[in-house]
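[stage:ingest] chain + small molecule (S-adenosylmethionine)
[stage:ingest] validated
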Amino acid sequence: MSCTDSTSDGGPRIRCRRQGRERTPLRQRADEPPSPCRAAARHPRATGLPSRTKRGRDGEATAAERPLRAGTRQAGRNGVARAGFGPQAGPVTNDQARRRDGTDGGQETSAAGEELSLFADPRYAACYDAFFPWEDREDFHFYLPRVTAADAVLDVGCGTGMLLHHAREAGHAGRLVGLDPAPGMLERARRRTDVEWVRGDLRSVAWREEFDLVLMTGHAFQELVTDADLRAALRAVSAALAPGGSFAFETRNPALRGWERWDFEYSLAVPDPEGSGGTVRMAMQAEGPATPAPGGGTLVRAVTRLTGPAWPGLRTHRSAYRFLNAAELRGFLAEAGLEVAEQYGDFDGSPPDDSAPEIVTVARRA
Ligand SMILES: C[S@@+](CC[C@H](N)C(=O)[O-])C[C@H]1O[C@@H](n2cnc3c(N)ncnc32)[C@H](O)[C@@H]1O
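[stage:predict] done
[stage:export] C-alpha cells:
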C-alpha cells in the first residue's frame, strides 16, 4: 500500500485507501517521520477501505467496511499525490494571518484591495473537491445520515457544498442551507440550485430557532481562533437551533499534536481539474511553535503554498487554527447554552480518548 496523505487548509482528514490508483509522493525524505497514515494502518481502528456504512460506537468494522479517515489518505482515484501544509504561532486571527501573506510573493487581493482567503480564490475552490474527493472522506459518511434525518439543516462553512449536494441527491426533501463567507467556494456550491446558499460569516448571522441540525465539517470549527470568534459563533449556532436541534462538528484532538506532521501529511498534487493537463500542487505545514491560546487550547499557524497552471507564481496563504481539548470545548459550548449530547474519537463512532484523532461532537441546547 502506498500511503499518501492530504488535507486542505483547515480542511478535512482523508484516510488511507488500499484501493484506487497509487499516487506518487511529490517528495520523499529519508528522514521523514512515519506517516500517520502508516501508523494508522497499524491501528485496528484506522486501516482499511472507505465505507459508506454507518457504524456503531463499538462495532469493529471489517477491513472492507472500514471508513476512510479524513486527514490521512493514500492513493486517490484522482491521482492525488503528497505535496504539504499546516498552521502558525501566537495569538492571531485568521484575518491577521492572511495579512502576513506575501513572503513568497503569493498574496492576492481583490479589486477592492481586500485580501483574499484561500477559500475565496475560485482557482483553489476549483481544486478543492479533487484534493478531497467525497469517496475518500469518512467524515461525510458520519454526517450524511444525520443530515438526511433532519428536516432543516444549516451547513456552516459549507465550502463547495458537497455534503448538501449529496443530501439532496439522497432524497432530502426539507430545507438545506449552506453558509460560507468565501465566494470561490460558494460559487462551486451554487452549481446546485435546489439548496439555499448564503454568503456570510457564522459570527454575524441571526437565524432564530430555524434548524434541526447545524453542522461544521472539514475542521471549519478550528478556523474560529479567538475567544471572541468562538463565543460569537457558538451563540449564533445556539440561537439558530430549533428546540431539540443539534450541532454536529469535529475538531482535531490536540493531544496528538498532529500539526507537527502536517508537512508530511498535508501535501497534495492533483491533475488540474480545469483540464490544462498540468498539475496543481499544494503543500501545507505548521509555521512557528504552537502557542497557548489565551482562553484555553492551542493556537497553530500554517502556511499553505500552491502552484499550478492557474497560478503564474507561487500562491502563499497563511492561516491559524485553534485546538481545544474536550474539557475546553465543553466550557465554550456551555457559555453558549450548549451541552455535549454525543462525543466520539473518530468518525467511526469510536470512544473519545487521548489517542483518538478527532473530537467529534454532537451538542444540544442545555
Ligand atoms: C476546510 S473548508 C471546509 C468546507 C466543507 N465544510 C468541507 O467539509 O469540505 C472550511 C470552510 O469554512 C469556511 N469558514 C471559515 N470561517 C467561517 C466562518 N466564520 N463562518 C462560516 N464559514 C466559515 C471557509 O470559507 C471554508 O469554506
